[in-house]
Amino acid sequence: MNIGIVVHGPNIIDSGYAEKLINLISEYGDISVRLGGTMGRTAVIDKSLEDIIDISKKLVPSDSLKIFHDAGVDVIFLLNYGKSSTTGQVFGYKVYNHYKNKISSNNIPIVQIERPGEEDGSVINWAVKSDLADEFADKLNLNIVTPEEIYETHIRGDEKSQTRRTIHGVSPGENIMVNSVVIGKSTSDKLILVSKDNQIVDIVGGEIKPHGIEKLGEVDLSKAIVKTGLLRKAKVKPRVLESEKSKNFKVAFLDHAGEDVYQFKDSSLVITVGDDTTLIASDILYRFNIPIIGITDGDLDKVVESGFKSKNSVIFEVESGNDDIIGNLIHEELFGNERVSDEFQNIDEVSEKIIEIINNRNIKYTINKI
């Protein structure tokens, strides 16, 4: 039997269940394992699982499912550890439906294992019926939940309006991220995002962050990736890899946390714009021993539990509301609006150029060297 396994997010990896389940599933046939999500890639590195779980490409889960579908595997497992049973089951529903729209024939069983080890953990058999769903539910002492139950309980009511989207499993005080941009904070356990003309205009059960809404721009609410709370909860000891750096002093520019940070892992330095982007990117780049120059304004929403930074990193904190302005100037003046430059010799030279740009705008700032 040829088996595809899609592992989603850091929680299933940090919990140790990804490795346990992969080993268990491998008893049934030849396996191939792929991952979805940037923070999940970091967890794979920290657990030394990159030889088992393919992290070479940044893929959303539905695309990973499609790769296995196109390869003609006999069954696909989707491993996830949602914040709650509700968030995990709704996640599976959305992933499966995105996947269905990408394939021509829906003839391969998909078995989702959700929150293993928890009392509310479950096994969901999407698409074609497979006896493996019942077998794994029994082995892992998990409940069987049907797609129909998930639809009736969580989805049916949300389909009445395409401009309103209910977010499940939320707690008060959590960050609300849409396509990796923090757009607000929850004030209730009932959260609804409201959009008009592809712009989010209201958060029922939450407070809008205007700067986040502006940075997000237009968004298709029905297709957007929405997350709440911390992206990665576990407190971990990061693993630093040996990585091949460019022979020249290569500087990269990153101004959005949703971009693929891993594409810059051969850089000598990465300039990051925004508090959350700086926190996420520096934490990932720490694994490759790459320093950053962060342009922030103190508007941090803490999207990961701990943020690591490589030695020699420099953080510029400018006056509130000016991080994007300075970022745009850096992108234009130092990079010619490109993403990578090899025009510099060292980090001190880059820092001096940034100081010059900030001073020309008469903006107050502080510098923190790591």
From TrEMBL:
Pfam family, one: DUF2117
Superkingdom of the source species: Archaea
Protein name stated in the entry: DUF2117 domain-containing protein
